Amino acid sequence: QVQLEESGGGLVQAGGSLRLSCAASGRTFSSYAMGWFRQAPGKEREFVTAINWNGGTAYYRDSVKGRFTLSRDNAKNTVYLQMNSLKPEDTAVYYCAAAATRSLHPPTREGDFGSWGQGTQVTVSS
Fold first, then answer.
1. Shortest CA distance to 38 belongs to which of 92, 112, 87?
2. Calpha distance 97→113 (Å, rounded)
């Protein structure tokens, strides 16, 4: 597993923006696909977005397409999630996750990610 440290969560009004970051330890960050999941109170954790090892392929759930952008900087061992036009429905604990694969297509299922961050709260008010 790789150690993940998240930051950037907070409280924002609807229509605002936040940028989450996830920093990974080790010298093999480029060997990992990276993803974000979220969990709202009383609901199951759901897939948000994921990116492959070299940043060439990214997937997004339909509800965030056009609003969220996932990128990575392998030199800094960091992945970024830019969240724009936030909605109250985006309120959740957001978790960074890593999967040890160099596949062209990043995984999107929880079970395929072996390392998880501590979670960071994102709250979007009406």
1. 92
2. 6
For the record, the structure tokens of 11 come out as: 């409280």
| Residue 63: Cβ within 10 Å count | 13
SS3 90: helix
Whole-number Cα distances in Å, 107 to 2, 7, 14, 102, 122: 16, 23, 30, 10, 23
Tokens (6 digits) for 122 = 């994102």
- Burial category of 49 from C-beta neighbours within 10 Å (exposed 0-12, middle 13-18, buried 19 and up): buried
Of 108, 83, 101, 64, the closest CA to residue 21 belongs to 83
pLDDT in tens, 27-51: 678 889 999 999 999 999 999 999 9
Q: Among 83, 92, 66, which Cα is nearest to 16's?
A: 83
Residues 6+ apart with CB under 8 A from 41: none
Beta bridge partners of 25: none
Average of pLDDT values for 6-29? 93
